[in-house]
Design brief:
The complex is a heterodimer. Chain A is an alpha+beta fold. Chain A has three helices and twelve strands, in the order H-H-E-E-E-E-E-E-E-H-E-E-E-E-E. Classes of the chains: A alpha+beta, B mainly alpha.
Chain lengths: 256, 173
Amino acid sequence: MIATAQQGRNMFIFGDLLGVVISPVQKGMTILGNSVSQIGGYFKGYDELKQENEELKMAVRSMEQAIRDNDLYRQENEDFRKLLGFNMKDKSFDFEPAQVIAGEISNWFKGYTIDKGTLDGIKQYDPVINTDGLVGYISEAGMTWSKVTTILDVQSKVGAIVVKSREYGVVEGDLEDADKGLCRLNYLDKNTMVLKGDVVITSGLGGKFPKEILIGTVTEVGVESHGISSYAVIKPVVNFNELKQVYVIKDFKVVD
Amino acid sequence: MFSENNKWIMRKAAGYFVLFAAVFVLQTTLVQKLAIFGVKPNLIAVCVACVAVMENIYVSAAFGLLMGLAADILGGGVVGFYAILYMWLGFLISIITDRHFVRNKTTCIVLSASLSAAVSLITYIFFFAFWGKGDILSAMRLMIAESVYSAVAVYAVYPAARWISIRTGPVEK
């Protein structure tokens, strides 16, 4: 048994060193691949970009209006909170920015390798986010690299809550939906009030992920084949095909 | 300094190590951008099949073991699972080719697709079906798509594997 444990440690060190050697090469190849895609995109997407630019201009105008409205609502909200005696809670995160340097070898698992590891203070099970929302968690941490298991992977389980109906569930990867970039919110009540378009965020239950991190929106609701519970298909806010920059949450706490 | 046999082994080892490194870097980087409907070819299976078609059982098994071990370590799974799987499948392909097939590109295409399907099936059984995850229809769809894409990828891997096989010396059965 001692010999087996020693062999396991040796294998881990070997794996870690292999990762240290191979990760700079993967990083270089990823940068090269991204550059080639970018150059191709200049020629391919000119008309699309022009149209997108017009749409974005319109979106900016409506968002400016929305910001003005939001300021008003925020002020109102603070006033109401004071009246009700609630304390505003502030999330305090310790981030480590990291770059995606490699994808998953197999089609069966959904993950990435990033260019930061234990030397940067990253540990196994640290949550990973990007500017849009939740990406996944660190499933393995090497010295200069780490493996991220995304919320699309079947091994991933994230405690979640539907903002509108306040219903709790678990976001899990699904083999059928993963290739379409979708995941599932399972264990909902049979007579769930969740509707298409509802927003899903992390619940913070279990302490693995901080609460109120955006996961995605509901695209479909159905009853499980056994008829005991319902599920919702979720479209994550993160675009996993274009994932380049992520942030590892090394430490998080909710401060009063 | 080295005997003729040792030189042959060294040449083969060096040649195939370069192929192994190139395939791993490509599989985790550029191949990700070639995914169609989220499915990418399994270059590891293609590479093991191509080498097994052209080499003897010892080289095939050793190359399968190396590729599988790296897949275990870099994939973050159970260490030894893919190592043993690819070693045995490399060994089997070498024997089957020796007895029933001609060593050419068509054989590589057929056996790469078969190897990719076999690895997918075993992965599904051990990592999904045993844990009650993933329905068989979705798994079959993924298996077939990956096998077809892997068969196409033979056109890219076969010339490199063949070049190394020829340049590093004749096959010793």
